[in-house]
Design goal:
This protein is of the alpha+beta class. The chain has 2 domains: about 90 residues, no CATH class; about 230 residues, BirA Bifunctional Protein, domain 2 (2-Layer Sandwich). It is about 40% helix and about 20% strand. The strands form 2 sheets. It has a 7-stranded mixed β-sheet with strand order 1-5-6-10-9-8-7, sandwiched between helices. A 3-stranded antiparallel β-sheet has the order 2-4-3. A hairpin with a 2-residue loop joins strand 3 and strand 4. Helix 7 crosses helix 9. The longest helix has 30 residues. The chain is rod-shaped and about 130 Å long. Bound molecules: 3,4-dihydroxyphenylalanine (DAH). The site of 3,4-dihydroxyphenylalanine has 11 residues, from strand 9 and strand 10.
Length: about 325
Amino acid sequence: MKDQLLELEKRGNDEISAINDPSDLEPFRIKYLGKKGALTSLMKSLGKLSREERPEAGKLANQIKVNLSRRFQEVKTSIEAGKSGGATSVDVTLPGRVPLYGHLHPITQVIKEVCLIFSRMGFRVVKGPNVELDYYNFEALNLPKDHPARDMQDTFYISENVVLRTHTSPIQVRVMETRQPPVSVIAPGKVYRRDSDVSHTPMFHQVEGLLVDRDVSFGELKGTLTRFIHQMFGSDTRLRFRPSFFPFTEPSAEVDIQCVMCGGKGCRTCSRTGWLEILGSGMVDPEVYGFVDYDPDVYSGFAFGMGIERIAMLKYGIDDIQLFFKNDMRFLSQF
Ligand code: DAH
């Protein structure tokens, strides 16, 4: 009897140790510890033993039952703990995990908004190459090789005649070269200059605009840009056109808006002037038409260009341009 009991305990221990599937637990319990299980039936046969043998065998049987039960509980607990998070232990009261949503970079958002405003006025969005010929970036914009105004733009040269474009204006020339008037295009893109501080980065973004047709006047330039600024910054934004110079426009004007920080009273952002410069513009210089075969006696037009980072900084009150390029989520997620 004693041997039978010890043999049963050993088999039981071996079997329970091999279990790692929770569905094997209950069959094991029934087989060894259940009312009709192996241990119970052995215990029932204790009565057949002699009076001398019975107490010792009974005690052993009880001990084995306690041992196997405890072992069974241990294995059951560890299997269930190992499965936590699995189908058997989902906590349905936990709040759901919300996935992280991305969104467009603030610069992309501003580019899209500028393009949308001009698209509504009938301008078509076009693109041009970032690596540009000197001819398009300077020469055909009335900036010959020795022209002093080339110094205004610190150029990255790829070779003597190839540059990283310093502005989006070369796209004007490419458009006029391939299409006859009427043309009205808006051209966003990256531009490059050798410059880096709180208001300059070596790569930044511009949007260029060009409209050429018969009888286009400076009044239409003013009307178009006024409408743009009112849509971009709000319809009560005051603006002014200030005479300026660009080699590819004549006359030229820079456009200022009333300082968005101080409302025109004068502060650090506007250098106490109350005004902020936001774009360059002018009537296309007849010299430029000479490069693209437009007849200056028949056609006239206007062009403008603006820095996107600058517009974004003014619109959102940001004082460091580098923030747009550091990709710090704490900054980006505010837009
Ligand atoms: N390309 C000029 C710049 O980067 C901006 C500009 C001025 C563009 C006048 C124009 C314009 O189209 O008419 O500084």
